User: Fold this.
Amino acid sequence: MTLIFSCNKETIENQTTNSEEKSELKTPQESVSEKVEPTADLSEYGKLAPIEIKDANQKDVFKKYGIEFSGNCYACDLAIFKLNKKNFDIVELCDEKNFHRYDDFSYEKTDNSIKIITPESTFIFTKVENEPIYQLKIEGQKPEFKNMRISEFYTQESLIEKFEEHDCGDFEG
Assistant:
């Protein structure tokens, strides 16, 4: 009887030891799946300027879109977006001293969009053309700032000159 009991005891101890070893093996695997800091290239979203649809029937995006005349030339009340890995800024078009900065944000980038998540809102810039033309959708609380109206479409500031309507012309407002 003692012999049988001692064998069972040894088997139980071995099972306990094996299960402890198994749990030790899981620990390194869990640390491998920790969240990693995003390393996506944000340069294409570095400075986005507001545009609007000028002629929806055009196939050429540089004729289809252009600057929003009222917001750029008359009221000068549009917002531009600046993004880098440290800051996400919403800046008044005509006064860069008037801006709202988000230090606490995260982002998720896919092939054709970027989602910028702040504590109050989520800004989703989705590429809608072959050229970098982005449609902006805001989920959550829509921010409201003095002299900063948010447009529906944005493009890289460096491309503005390529649009058929890219400045205020002879407007003297």
Remarks:
- The chain has two domains: 1-32, 43-162.
- DSSP finds three helices and ten strands in the chain.
- Residues 1-7, 9-13, 16-37 have pLDDT under 50 and may be disordered.
- The beta strands are 47-53, 65-66, 79-83, 88-92, 95-102, 106-109, 113-117, 121-127, 133-140, 153-156.
